[in-house]
Specification:
With about 290 residues, this protein is an alpha+beta fold. The chain has helices at about 30-45, 60-65, 75-80, 90-100, 120-150, 175-185, 230-240, 265-270, 275-285, and strands at about 5-10, 45-50, 85, 105, 155-165, 170, 190-200, 215-225, 260-265. It holds the Pfam family Maf. Keywords: Hydrolase.
């Protein structure tokens, strides 16, 4: 789903969320924390509006439900199946929940540290990471079923999101200085956000081997442009604690949304899960008779 976005005042401007403050390793701590509070206060009433009247992304909310139209005719049957989300991501959990999809969460044990120099692009890196995470959870599910003899899992969903700037893959920051360097490298420039997604059908055989599981993987890329940011703004943002646990040190659905001046592609891909493509791929599995509803 391609959308054009612009920065406007949020319709939920009265609803503010406090982000946990982190102590920056900097002598002028008080000034940076004050600046961080200012940014968070402003960002909580600033949002990225879609080109759909009356809908905003201050929450991962109402617009996600529109995408559900693609799966509406299969919603009841799909929710009768056992679906597992192989991710601990809050954003992915909220997006799927807002679509009305029922699922369990089983976080992969896979160590997401594949050697980046093996991959020609961030998209292929994210795709391979998502595939490994999905297959790891498929193995975990198989072990559980052998021990507990529970109902079989019908669909496993995994995803991995990375940011790429000038061929450099940016994942989650290690510390405050790392986060500062990441945001500085994105300031005033274009970058790409790649999300790799793997859909695993544990009971469906792979055509090439004749053995389960069946795996379908795809990736989606969105181009994002940041405004030019001052070092003080970046330090204040880092001090807020927002960069941590996020690819590229930012989440577009939070205060960093105010840094974005342009976006080409799927907004929800930047959040961490490309809803439209996901729905299209699930529909394809149903129509092919692989995902039996």
């Amino acid at each position: 789903m391609c959308i054009q976005v612009s920065l406007k005042r949020c319709c939920l401007q009265g609803q503010r969320e406090k982000a946990p403050a982190r102590r920056p390793k900097h002598p002028e701590r008080r000034r940076y924390l004050q600046a961080a509070n200012t940014i968070l206060s402003q960002a909580s009433i600033t949002s990225i509006f879609l080109s759909v009247p009356g809908l905003c992304n201050c929450r991962i909310c109402s617009f996600a439900r529109l995408t559900n139209i693609m799966l509406l005719q299969h919603k009841t049957a799909l929710n009768a199946k056992r679906v597992v989300l192989a991710s601990g991501s809050k954003q992915r959990r909220e997006l799927l929940s807002n679509m009305g999809v029922k699922f369990e969460i089983l976080v992969s044990r896979f160590d997401e540290k594949l050697p980046k120099d093996r991959f020609p692009s961030g998209a292929e890196y994210a795709l391979e990471t998502a595939r490994h995470k999905a297959l790891d959870v498929a193995a975990m599910v198989s072990e559980q079923q052998q021990q507990q003899h529970g109902p079989p899992v019908d669909l496993i969903i995994s995803a991995d999101t990375v940011v790429e700037a000038d061929g450099v893959i940016l994942e989650k920051p290690d510390d405050e200085e790392h986060a500062f360097q990441m945001i500085s490298s994105l300031s005033g420039r274009d970058h790409q956000v790649h999300t790799g997604v793997s859909l695993v059908l544990p009971g469906e055989p792979d055509p090439s081997t004749g053995q389960p599981p069946f795996v379908r993987s795809f990736s989606v890329t969105t181009d994002v442009t940041f405004a030019k940011l001052s070092p003080e703004t970046i330090r204040a943002y880092v001090a807020s604690g927002e960069p941590f646990g996020k690819a590229g040190s930012y989440g577009i659905q939070g205060p960093a949304g105010s840094f974005v001046v342009g976006l080409r592609g799927c907004f929800y891909n930047v959040v961490g899960f490309p809803l439209h493509r996901f729905c299209a791929e699930v529909l394809a599995l149903v129509e092919e008779g692989r995902l039996k509803l």
